[in-house]
Each structure stands twice: as C-alpha cells, then as structure tokens.
Here is the input.
Amino acid sequence: MSTYSSSELLTINAAHLLRDGDVVFVGVGLPNLACNLARHTHAPNLVMIYEAGVIGAQPARLPLSIGDPTLVSGALSVCSMYDIFAFYLQRGNVDVGFLGGAQIDRYGNINATVIGDYHHPKVRLPGSGGSMEMSAWANRCYILTPHQKRRFPEKVDFRTSAGFLSGKVERDAAKLRGKGPQAIVTDLGILEPDENGELVLTALHPGATPEQARANTGWDLKCASEIRTTKAPSQEELRILREDLDPNGIYLKGGA
Amino acid sequence: MMSKLTTLSEAISSNIHDGDTIYAAGFTHLIPFAAGHEIIRQGIRNLVLARATPDLIYDQMVAGGCARKVIFSYMGNPGVGSLRFVRSQIEAGTLEWEEYSHFSMISRLQAGATGLPFMPMNPTAAGDLERANPLYRTVTDPYSGDDVVVVPALKPDVAIVHVQRADAQGNAHLWGIIGEQKEAAFASSRVILTAEEIVDEEVIRSDPNRTLIPGFIVNAVCHAPYCAHPSYTQGYYDRDNSFYLQWDEISKTQAAVQSYLDEWVYGVKDRSEYWQKLGVEVHQRLKVDSRPSRVVDYGQY
Here is the structure.
C-alpha cells in the first residue's frame, strides 16, 4: 500500500468528482492540481476558468497565484473580470466551483470574512473574492478542507457565501441557479448534503472511522445509512501529481 | 496633437491630491507599483484606496501613511495568504474599510465606466456582507417582480493604469489578464497611464482591437519600464513570486516594513534606480521566453 499526504488525498478525491467536459471555476493550490490531474486522467475535455478572466487555461508550470502569466499563454480566451463574472458565472456557463473558507457550518454555509464581530474583528480574513457568486451560481460547488472541529462549527460567524442557508427549503426559496455545495472533501472522508441540506458523512477514506469524523466536527454529525469507502490514491495518480504537476511539493507536501 | 508624455513624478504631483479616491488597476497583472512608490515618496495623505485586491501595493501605501480608507473585495496576499499590514490596521480599528465581493466591486466600476447610477446583479442569498455594507441595496426588477441586488457607481478621482505599450497621446495596447483596467480608466475623472514602451501611433493603429484605452480619456503618459515589479507585465517579465513570499515575512513587524520603505521607496529616486538596485540575478530570474501571437491581418481597404 502506498503512502500519501493528506493534501494528495484531498486533491485526488476532488479530481474524482470532476466529469469530462465540466467547465470549472478554479482556484490556485489544491483545486488547480485536482483539475489538472482530472485533465490528465479521466477528464481530458475539462475547461478551466480562472476568476482573473482566463478561459481554457493549460498551465505549463504550476501557477503560484490566481493571475499567473502561465494561465494566459496558450489559453482559449482572456476577458475582463466583469465579463468572467457576468457572461460566464452569472449567465450560467460554469458547472463546478471550488470554494474554501475558515469555517463551514452544518448547512454548508461558508465564512471567509471574519472571526468575531464584523465591525470589531478578532481575526480579519481575506473576504469573499469571487466565492459569494460562485456558491450561488455554479451548478455544483465543492469544498476541500482539513477535518477540524474549529473549521466545522454549528453556525458560521459570518456567512460569506451561501450553502443551504438554514436548510434546503430556504435555499430553494431564494431561487439561486446553482445547486449549492455537493461535497465537502476532508482528510477523513466526504460530507454531502441530505434532503434537508444538512451535511452528513457519506464516505470515509481507507483507514478513517466515523468516530474520528464525529469527534472532529462541531455539530452532531449524522452518518449516512451506508458509508462508502473512497478509492485509495493510485500509483499513477500520485506519480502525475508528484512528477508532473507539483514536482517541488509546494502544495502537496504535508497537511492540507 | 500635443504629447502627454511626462515623468511619473510630475504626473502624480499634478493629478493626485490629498484626500482623493484612487484606483490603481490590475488583477495580479500590470499592478503599477512604481506609481504607488512615487505616491509614498511624495507624502500624499488621506487617500481612499480602491482595488478589488489591495495586493502589496496598497499594503505598502497604507504602511507609508498615504491612506485613510481601503475599498476592496479580496484582502489577501495572492498565492501566499494574509495581507498583514492592512489586516492589522483593520483589526486595530485604525483604518476604515468598505467591502464587496469581486462581482459587486467590479459592477461598481462598470456602472461608473458606463455612466450609469448603479448596476444590478442576481441575488446570491449569502446576506451578511449586504447587511454589513449599507451601499448594497435590493430593488425590485420592474419586469419580473423579483429582487435584484444593486451597487452604486464607483467614480474614482484618479485611475492609474499600467500597459505594455502606448503612444504619446495615451492610446494604449494591453494584453494578458485585463482585469478591470479599461473599467477603472473610464470610471475615473483623471487617468495616469504608465507604459513599458512608448510607441508610434502607427503601431497602435496596426492593431486597433488591442487598444482598450483611447488617448482622449488619458491625462498623463509616463514611460515606466518595470513599473509593475513585483507584479508582472505579460510577455515582458515574470511575476516575482518570491518577493510576495518575502513580503509575508517583512510585513510581520512595523520595523521591517519601515526599513523596507526606507531602502526601496525613500532610498531610491525612481523606478529605474529601483530596478538597477534589484540586480542582475533578479533580472535574469524574471526574464521570459518569447511566445508571439500569429499576426492578425486587418486587410487594406
């Protein structure tokens, strides 16, 4: 059995969620690696879009920022920021969005803005960027995060982007075009929304237990009646990540 | 027509005044650092600094004492993490801020650039930022009766825009990531243009689709090679990612920030001296190989 870091585990499981032909709004770091891994394996027709306004990027080196020049050279198209958010995201041309945040709550709402009071912040985080729109308008959203209690509170301090709000009924009433968060991939397993929009444990990575997941979640985490075991990272997937995509281990070394 | 060519120092002293709202454009790409440093050197005060991503340029200008307020949609060090100086001022309550999502920030510029009072957007339902910032409003779409979210036009006093090449009138070609340069220029009362190269009008006229900014909205044109470092200019030099990492260390203490400003901003006369001071090793590291586009044939009519 091969060994792998938790970052590699997250990246490979994220890649498995992508379908060939998906148009993906990508961030740097692990989502970028997951998309490129999918492109090199089961999803050669994946289209990568960056909020900087790049469509159909084929980065020749590992991009170290969301506006890396390697995203532009050889891309299908480059447009303004207004155009990428309006023509592509708001219009409904994006299948998948990757989101991250300091806190994710029971209903998949995300806080990327502040810990404590907004006007008197205890810890000020970077803020929304494009995540407020992505969580509302991309068809499917995925979140990659280490599984830690402080990252999974019952309720977020600040709702930067919408998951299922107070439950699926409220999100449906808001008539957003996107379906909301479809999977939260952690280093222990995968959480998915149930029929009420509550995140429940549906899969565990090889070796992880439901008790571990429950102990590291800030609410009373429900388990699906049948919990799947995810496919362990293959030698080929690890090779592509380590040799081709992140040879210096900038994002893949150690934890997520 | 009279040339608008001038020095960066002159362009800034005659166009930027204490208390102005400025928009130094560029999403990761073409960020006009040389202009930011010149503003710090000139000791301009009480500016309102608007940018989707404040980036290191506003971190340094806030540290240089130029700003009373920042307007932003993502306050981070791109690719690295926290934007430490601005963040610490916000946490300490010593800097005003006004915050948006990327789309609403850019929609504000789009409204300003097109002469509209506000710009509508579909609701996102997230809610908390709209409650925290009273400039977000919700109105009824008069056609469907549904809610739309609106943000008011942003009309900065001055836009600073860096480009690959411009003529002496300010007709400007830019390519690569074109974030919000055009919108910032059209939204603002005055435009300072900096360019890697000053070219003949003939060069501009050879590829009119690439002219995103027409000279007649530009007030000053400055020849400023390497203006964007540690950001980059597509096709000219690479982003200095290692400086972005270094700034993460520098910006941990007030003393280190001050000594950076003393050495690299106050300690140099202009961008040319700054670039020489960076040294050959950095120049070599940021060099890029050529990858030209195929020539476009507009036809002779």
Q: What stands out?
A: The longest strand of chain B covers residues 158-166.
